[in-house]
What does this fold into?
Amino acid sequence: MKQSVFFKAKKGLNRTIVTELSQRKNEPGWMTDYRLRALEVFERLPLPTWGADLSGLDHSDIFYYVQPLEKQHTDWDEIPEKIKTTFDRLGILQAEQQFLAGVGAQYESEVVYKSLREEWVKKGVIFTDMSTGLKDFEQLIKNHFGKVIPISDNKFAALNSAVWSGGSFVYIPPNVVVTMPLQAYFRINSISMGQFERTLIIADPGSSVHYVEGCSAPLYRKNSLHSAVVELIAQPHSSIRYTTIQNWSTNVYNLVTKRAIAHEHARVEWIDGNFGSKVTMKYPCIILKGQGAQGQIISVAMAGKGQHQDAGAKIIHLAPGTKSNILSKSISKDGGRTSYRGLLKIVKGALAARSRVQCEALLLDEKSRTDTYPTLSINESLVDVGHEASVNALNDEQIIYLQSRGLSAQASQALLINGFMDVFVSELPMEYAIEINRLIAMQMEGSIG
It folds into this structure.
């Protein structure tokens, strides 16, 4: 199917493509140099040999930049009908009108629409795409870009650093509490497409924000690649909650690096829902840098036929009195595979640190697989740490009991699965919780009953 776009780079990746990308965006010289250094690191680093199988990913068969429109819009009516219809079906405009402080919509490599309610503009909140942020707030971005996740962190962080486009730049001024979520939605719509959004969120002291992202793509015969980088900076006594609800098609390699730094008495939460994709490798990280900082990571993953969800969490305690909680839940069905890969690290001197890690997996058939790869590095004795993991099947006794109360076998199984996922769903705003329940029901069709 032919895709109508404003500009599409040639397939593959080299210095010329990276330089032209930076020039098309009219970026400052330091960003062009940053991209080219990142390209060198990407070419030098090998593919990871652990985790999911990446042998089917062909870097030469990907379009690394696809510009759908000549310019970004702030008026929904100005969006071309084809793109607008895609996002209308996803409910983006309706959500903006009803319960969002701001919304951004990225189609292919660029954000095509962005808005922020006037009340938050007046309070100094910045919510824009990264390219616009680089033009309008260059020094602020330069001070923080790549400081949480350096180029050399891993091969795909280097790739994103070389070809990033789109994403969000969010800045919350001191003591401003944004009471409504900000949402960004990312859509891959072209065949053999690579999407590399870059997101940077800075919460100044005493501020608070909830950022929600959603992701999707249609199914093509060829593979696509999504490789984002997300950096969060929570200044003292601030709060950042970052919620992800992804539903990529089963031809997408989803290889993402997300990390946050929490300063004194700050709180960071990753609420991470992984549905769809061919392969996911994603391990949100929180560095508890300041005394009394807190972090929580709640993740769920569902893997069906031909899917491998290799997801998890990392929390690093660097200061006294820090607290963390990791809760991971997964469902494997129809021969799918889920993996929890986690790191909990407490350094010497992080006195009175407290942490709980809990991993729960549900297998729906004998063909499916689940694995747990936890790493605990505890270098301080005066701490409180707990870790537990479990693997279960659907409980036949519970199903029989529910059937005795008048429910069908399918309804009984669905109820148990929803209960298993409830800890994740309960963390979402009501509107998102309803959609997640629908998504879970769609994922489970044909697997129960």
Summary: The chain has two domains: 7-282, 394-449. Residues 261 and 287 are 5 Å apart (CA to CA). The chain is about 25% helix and 35% strand.
